[in-house]
Amino acid sequence: MKFLKKASLAAAIAAASISAQAEMVALDDATMSATTGQAGVTIEIDIDSQGISIGEIEYKDEGSVLLQNITVKNVDNLVQEIDVDASGNLVIGMSGVTGMQIAIGDTVADTTGSKSAVALRSTAGETTELVNNLDMTLNLGASTTTIANLQAAGNATALGITGDAATGSVAILANTSIEITDMNVGAFGYTAAQATTRAAAAAAANQLPDLNGDTVVDAADEALLAGQLANGSAVQISGLKFYGTGGVGTSATIEQTIWAKGGSSANGGGVYIAIGEIAGTLDIAAISMGGASIGSVKVSDINLAGMTQRIYGH
Questions:
Q1: Residue among 12, 233, 21 at smallest CA distance from 113
Q2: N or C: which end of the chain has fewer CB within 10 A?
Q3: d(C-alpha 176, C-alpha 145), whole Å
Q4: Which residues of 46-57 are buried (b: 16+ CB within 10 A; e: fewer)?
């Protein structure tokens, strides 16, 4: 579960330019009435089957974490509407979108093994692969994000914001409506450099198979083996679905509230994320290790209410 959450988070970072409003909360009638008739901004986004791409995202501390070969495809008429209501809340509405495709790292068709979904790099430049590939197809439901102005009198109470969040300057109310129709992940594989080294070692030990069927074991077979190794993960998850309580074809919902507190981490400073109920089912069709299936997994009625995360530097 923890790995899947991190892998999903990696994918979410990749899609941030178009799905930053995917974590949203539906407003009640009273709050919606405050925005009715007001001027605002509408943004329409279309991304075709060719998609948009990012070559690499690098998070650097001492060593680095790399996200590579990020693509987002098939976003049809995603509409965002931005308004500010009478209480000073920023309200961002988003239409639903069906069949969005997100991928990171190598794809099924790419046997060169040149990209990693998640790679780790030392300060000296040595790189190893954590996640080879991650691809998913998902449906986002229509929803609304509220960035609440907590200085407005009675606003926190009206929006149901309590505790430390109510004392901050702003809080983000989020209720994601999402269905993952298919997700596949490969972990603990070889980078291109690692695979090349291993293929060369196999050639030196006269252990190369005839991979291209020409009855001659040569450099071409060594290159094919390197490609196969680089694109072959020790742990593979396939056919992952995440859907709502109504079963496949319905969206799951995730509730959360996000706020920040200033000052040092020792005094409680940082960004807080309070997780509510996750109304949905996580269904994994197959998990394989070393090329052999070890079965399937289904997790229902997930509820993380009461869990609060604090994120800060160290």
A1: 233
A2: C
A3: 9
A4: ebeeeeeeeeee
